[in-house]
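Researcher: Here's a chain I'd like modeled. Treat it as a single chain, no partners, no ligands.
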Amino acid sequence: MTERLPPTLRAGHPLLGLGYAEPVRHYQRLRLGEDVAVESEVPVAEEVPVAFVYNGRPHVVMMATPADLEDFAIGFSLSEEIVASAAEIEQVEAVRYSQGIELQMTVSPAVAERLSARGRQLAGRTGCGLCGVQTIDEALRETRPVESGGVLETGSLWRAESELRRFQEYNRATEAMHAAAWATFDGTIRVAREDVGRHNALDKVIGALARGGVDPRGGFVVMTSRASYELVQKAAVAGIPVLAAVSRPTGLAIRLAEAAGLTLIGLLRGRTASVYAHGERLRHPAPAGGEGAARDAQEHAGGD
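Model: Modeled as a single isolated chain. Structure tokens:
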């Protein structure tokens, strides 16, 4: 693979060394109160430009947490349908530079030709879900149908949501990262990843499943974010039958979940949740009426 060296940064430049950053770094901060100001050192989530390069051709730059980069490379490539399977990526190398990271991937000539036809060489914001798409047709691509999968007990949902906190090491320190986790239908978390971008976290989970040879259809995903339509798209492409998020979904996310046959759950907090699409996969108590329904509506009207 041809090496392309970025321009050298001057000494003292704020981006110098960013490509070698750890996921969390300590910074000095001044905490202000009503009648007091306290200086202290606190952990902060790092955000690094990560360039996706296929056969030496730059595709997109994402702002991401510099961790689990191989998972990110493969998961992004799968969820964006750049490749149909992880086997189509012959090699992945994370190359760190002073101001960022390149994920240099080798793919077959057929994949490279398809990618070239898409003509996308843009920069993405933190966890950008559109990832450089240039047309509405590309952004709202046809949903992939999701197979039925297993039956999910509500108790398994509660268990996975509760367990997820144990896997949020970076967020415990920074309070600035999203997490995505894949759990089996009994609620046991098998893979969890963190990132400053919610889409990146899900891509990393998808990549980790692919690298480990785990069938995504055998479980469900829990997210510490709202359920946006891009997350539904990515989950459907990966074949994940259930997507649960701690905050609400968007209307477009519900429409896409309905079309894909994906079970979409929002407001998953403690031992409560709201089902927005394809609740037939869930085993739960009979819906409440009267006062119970009114109470549920009031809870749903609460904040994210």
